[in-house]
Design brief:
Elements: E1 5-10, E2 13-18, H1 28-43, E3 49-54, H2 77-85, E4 91-95, E5 98-100, H3 102-108, E6 112-115, E7 120-122, H4 136-144, H5 146-153, E8 159-160, H6 161-167, E9 172-173, H7 178-191, H8 207-211, H9 213-224, H10 231-245, H11 248-263, H12 266-281, E10 299-302, H13 306-317, E11 322-325, H14 329-349, H15 354-362, E12 364-367, E13 378-381, H16 387-400, E14 406-409, H17 416-420, E15 429-434, E16 443-448, H18 454-466, E17 470-475, H19 482-499, H20 503-513, H21 519-526, H22 528-538, H23 543-550, E18 563-564, E19 573-574, H24 576-589, H25 598-618, H26 625-635, H27 645-652, H28 654-668, H29 677-685, H30 689-694
Parallel strand pairs: 2-3, 3-4, 4-6, 5-7, 6-9, 10-11, 10-13, 11-12, 13-14, 14-15, 16-17
Antiparallel strand pairs: 1-2, 7-8, 15-16, 18-19
The protein binds nicotinamide-adenine-dinucleotide.
């Protein structure tokens, strides 16, 4: 058969095996091969039923997404479905490992499904900004009911075999030998007096929703309320809803139209970029498979504040026992009570059970004595952001930690190389920069110091993945990738206020761009005192933010910041006092105030970040533009549908970005607008940033 599809017969059962490593993707050759094999089984008079299965560790990971966006090649996945569905002999899908996307859709066209106990099934297309486009939105509702289908399709998350059995997504769970059980199932279907009906012909599961579409709509509204401006979740609902009133074939055609519309749109393009970018970020030059991560069976965290607590939670959630060290018992008690409260909230919400909470808490211990942490394999420091404090802590760690322990700092800005010099083992030191709240946010910036050993970086990468983070390796500089880019816009935020915009105007421009929050609401949430302290340590000022802090307005935690929070921390209101302060400061500085529109706000805040991102690439602080996108998507809630700042800049046109940067540079003289050499080069040559970087030595 074509494309690594094999055909064997065991008596009267034909076994068709997809063997296309690593995940048996349904690329062109596999599609052709499966159809040929089905034709052969149909023609073989000794065969009365068929088992379709996957070689290796999975049934199928789905469509071959490298084909997305290219001219489609026939046979298509729908053609494979039609071939399976119209077989006169029953076809059983034998599912092990995963059946994702197109893989699951093909199994829905079979007459029966049997899964191994550890199998996972999903229609994750929504995560690529798409809907299932090969009948999944029409067959799944017919199999398990439209509301249950929405529960699978809209979030796009994997469903385990037991759950799949309980909703009817699979018919059986196999014992130890999936293939033998699948053959037995196929024989039973062949021997039954009536041939099992194809999923497309089943209507019974649709009846309830057809009688009460309002209940379906309410369920859909509930599932999509966090769609955050993304089109795909809503499109999934539209497609599934077709099952209520549109005949199967007409609905399939509409599903295809919606799929193609999304495929050609900006959002899916961005989300597909992010899919590859995340995988790419895990590849670090010099850290191949030959570099073995060190074992982390036991960890310690220094500091039980905002970050220390969250980091400790992330580690114990990943099954790693942690000892937290603090300066005093009171600080430990405070930190532990926050951790307990967080877990109690998770129990109340139903996201973990009481037993699971207790198991996690059971992995935590506390101490004020360094001797108690000496045998940890990894220690993450999260004390105050002051070099002198960090130096004392690392000096102490050097004394007590066992040889080979990984010593990490969660510093936001400070020089990891300088911290490493406090130890006699700088090669064991690196930055592991988590984001707040650390138990929730996915990003982990791994800061590789001058002397950090490769296996120490590999350890941090492996640990990051183990605890469900998205690790990105970056180099040492003030603020690393994310915070350094963020800093590049702070001066402009202030200038925009002085020149005429209100905090609410700026925040609205960010919301309209797709962020969940604008910079001023974000500052109020994080606490304005943090930036204030940081500026003071660097001898910097920010006219408005400093004035607010001097008034004790630190944001939500003090009830007032750029906004006032009289009705609770989630409900900031514009504050006339702040507007008056801004006007007064503008007058003092002789700034003429004027109307400022959203375009100007975006150009003066987001473009400098892109420019700083390009400088970061020039300096080799980030390895690739897509790594920067991953940082911003996972650490700063950059809108997913825009694919990250560097991807978005390329879509907007680098020459346009450079032109506008030059304009604002001319107007304000601020260095954040002076286009980087890399941006200029790429804009001039028409290359992408990655291409411009690859052509070494030609930047200047
Ligand atoms: P925090 O003030 O909430 O907590 C710091 C904790 O460290 C306090 O509980 C304090 O008692 C303890 N501590 C101070 N000195 C100590 C010492 N010598 N030994 C033991 N414990 C000590 O601060 P945070 O927000 O958790 O920040 C901690 C670190 O994480 C800083 O380096 C910060 O820059 C970084 N960080 C913060 C954020 C954030 O959003 N808050 C995000 C990423 C990184």
């Amino acid at each position: 058969m074509a494309g690594n599809v094999t055909y064997t017969a065991d008596g009267d059962v034909a076994v068709i095996t997809i063997d296309n490593p690593p995940v048996n993707a349904f690329g062109f050759d596999v599609r052709r091969g499966v159809i040929e094999a089905m034709d052969r089984a149909e023609a073989d008079s000794t065969v009365s039923s068929v088992v379709l299965t996957g070689g290796g560790r999975v049934f199928s990971g789905g469509a071959d997404i490298t084909e997305f966006g290219k001219t489609p090649r026939e046979p298509s996945l729908p053609d494979v479905n039609t071939r399976c569905e119209t077989m006169t002999k029953p076809v059983v899908a034998a599912i092990h490992g995963v059946a994702f996307g197109g893989g699951l859709e093909v199994s829905l066209s079979c007459h029966g499904r049997i899964a191994s106990q550890d199998a996972k099934l999903a229609l994750p297309e929504v995560k690529l900004g798409l809907i299932p486009g090969a009948g999944g939105t029409q067959r799944l509702p017919r199999l398990i009911g439209p509301e249950a289908a929405l529960d699978v399709i809209v979030p796009g998350n994997p469903v385990g075999a037991q759950k799949a059995l309980s909703v009817g997504l699979v018919d059986r769970i196999a014992g130890d030998d999936l293939l033998e059980d699948a053959k037995a199932f196929a024989r039973e279907l062949a021997a039954a007096p009536e041939k099992p009906s194809a999923v497309r012909d089943r209507e019974d599961k649709l009846e309830a929703a057809r009688r009460d579409p309002a209940a379906f709509d309410a369920h859909a509204a509930d599932l999509t309320k966090k769609a955050r401006g993304l089109d795909a979740p809503l499109a999934c609902v539209r497609a599934v809803r077709l099952t209520l009133d549109t005949p199967f074939d007409a609905a399939l055609a509409k599903e295809r139209d919606i799929f193609i519309e999304l495929m050609n749109g900006e959002q899916s393009k961005s989300q597909r970029h992010l899919f590859f970018a995340e995988r790419e970020a895990g590849k670090v030059p010099g850290i191949g498979r030959d570099v073995k991560p060190r074992t982390v069976a036991k960890a310690a965290v220094i500091g039980a504040g905002t970050m220390g607590g969250g980091i400790a939670m992330s580690l114990v959630n990943g099954g790693i026992p942690v000892t937290i060290l603090e300066m005093s018992q009171e600080a430990l008690d405070r930190g532990m009570s926050v951790i307990r409260r967080n877990y109690d909230t998770s129990v109340k919400r139903g996201s973990i059970s009481e037993e699971e909470r207790d198991r996690r808490l059971g992995r935590l211990s506390t101490t004020t004595n360094y001797d108690d942490i000496g045998d940890a394999d990894l220690v993450i420091e999260a004390v105050f952001e002051e070099m002198s404090v960090k130096k004392v802590v690392f000096g102490k760690l050097d004394e007590v930690m066992k040889p080979g322990a990984v010593l990490a700092s969660n510093t936001s800005y400070l020089d990891v190389d300088e911290i490493a010099q406090m130890t006699k083992r700088p090669s064991d030191v690196l930055g592991m920069h988590f984001f707040s709240p650390a138990n929730v946010m996915k990003l982990l910036e791994i800061v590789r110091g001058k002397e950090t050993a490769s296996d120490v970086v590999a350890t941090a990468l492996a640990l990051g993945k183990r605890i469900g983070k998205v690790p990105v390796v970056v180099g040492v500089c003030h603020g690393f990738v994310g915070n350094r880019m963020l800093s590049s816009r702070s001066a402009e935020n202030e200038d925009l206020l002085l020149e005429g915009a209100s905090p609410a105007d700026v925040d609205k421009a960010f919301l309209d761009f797709g962020f969940l929050m604008g910079p001023f609401a974000m500052g109020d949430l994080a606490g304005l005192d943090i930036g204030w302290r940081n500026r003071k340590s660097l001898g910097q000022t920010a006219v408005i933010a400093d004035a607010l802090c001097e008034e004790g307005r630190f944001g939500q935690k003090t009830g007032k910041g750029f906004y006032s929070y009289e009705d609770g921390p989630r409900d900031g209101k514009p504050d006339p006092w702040v507007n008056a302060l801004i006007e007064e400061k503008a007058k003092e500085l002789g700034v003429n105030r004027r109307n400022i529109d959203a375009t100007e706000i975006v150009e003066r805040t987001i473009y400098p970040m892109i420019n700083e991102g390009a400088r970061i690439l020039e300096e080799g602080i980030a390895l690739r533009p897509s790594d920067i996108d991953i940082v911003w998507i996972n650490g700063y809630a950059f809108p997913v549908g825009k694919g990250g700042p560097m991807f978005w800049a390329e879509q907007a046109g680098l020459s346009h970005i450079v032109e506008r940067l030059e304009y604002w540079h001319g107007k304000t003289g601020n260095s954040v607008f002076e286009p980087s050499a890399l941006l200029r080069k790429a804009a001039k040559s028409g290359e992408s940033l990655a291409e411009a970087m690859a052509a070494k030595g030609k930047v200047a």
